[in-house]
């Protein structure tokens, strides 16, 4: 188990309050540095650039907040950013650059699962702690003990979708996901879960479709859904393609219900989909209109810095940065291995809930249901349960 491995490593590790970044798996130490440096990596260019740019802005807010109160270990925190263009090829190259720079002690970011998994192989091999705020593939943290995640996994997303369908009373469900490792994986998870629940739920998955990246005309897929008589459609795709799909579908059918993933929890989705976003529902672990004072404070700073409300992914990478800083303080060291070990002992209340990593490196997420009403997101409270609680309610 990862936690047992960490305990063994911690037993032979010599901690130093003056240690800089690096110092593990052959990386050199930077004890003389007057800064603690972390890296953010994401799609800063290309079709998914808004995700990367907004997530980087959220991490910067966390860095600024800590620097205002003195930084960590008496040193200021420096954030450096890299563009992976949301491609595995570029992510691998960037990961090599990061791990080879001994001044960098931890990494946050990468948007999609496939890209994150490619980079994580490098991070694990070279021994630098990495935290994802958006990659949901279940195998990500299985790569090794340096790989962490502060976002929900596909199983959580699939279960939330089923709960929404159950709550709204739909019988015939369709799925439209991107033809990527991520899209196929979440589709499989939904299919498996619905089979396991059987007659405990009334919904039936009647059609699951995949689309290729860059698709602009969804007319053939829409016809298939209509012929199948679907009442609700789930998609985990990014807003750049799900918004046009919704618009094209609304031209033929105003009554179908759209259930999106947290990828569509953004002002950009609302702007792109326009009036056709009305009635869309989605599950998220973060909502900027929460009554929580920390959420309100973060959201206000983010809106001032970035010009829009923060997304779920923004909240999750913001908390990831805090987790790294707490781990540095706990170990009194910015050594890569020390940070990794102390991340397993993380325990604080973040803007996306309680931040604590289990022995697999995952941080379980409780989700809330949002609905688009009059061009904005509103919460529908007391609907979504944790998967164990929902299955207990079903008698499973």
Describe the model:
42% of the residues lie in helices and 18% in strands. The protein is of the alpha/beta class and 396 residues long. The chain has a seven-stranded mixed sheet, sandwiched between helices. A five-stranded parallel sheet has the order 2-1-3-4-5. It is globular and about 65 Å long. The protein starts with a helix and ends with a helix.
Summarize, please.
With 396 residues, the chain is α/β, with parallel strands linked by helices. Helix content is 42%, strand content 18%.
Give the SSE layout.
Blueprint: H1 2-12, E1 35-42, H2 49-68, E2 76-83, H3 88-99, E3 104-109, H4 113-126, E4 130-132, E5 147-149, H5 154-168, E6 172-178, H6 181-197, E7 204-211, H7 219-228, E8 232-235, H8 239-250, E9 257-260, H9 267-273, E10 281-284, H10 293-306, H11 312-331, H12 336-343, E11 348-350, E12 353-355, E13 368-373, E14 376-380, H13 387-394
Parallel strand pairs: 1-2, 1-3, 3-4, 4-5, 6-7, 6-8, 8-9, 9-10
Antiparallel strand pairs: 10-13, 11-12, 13-14
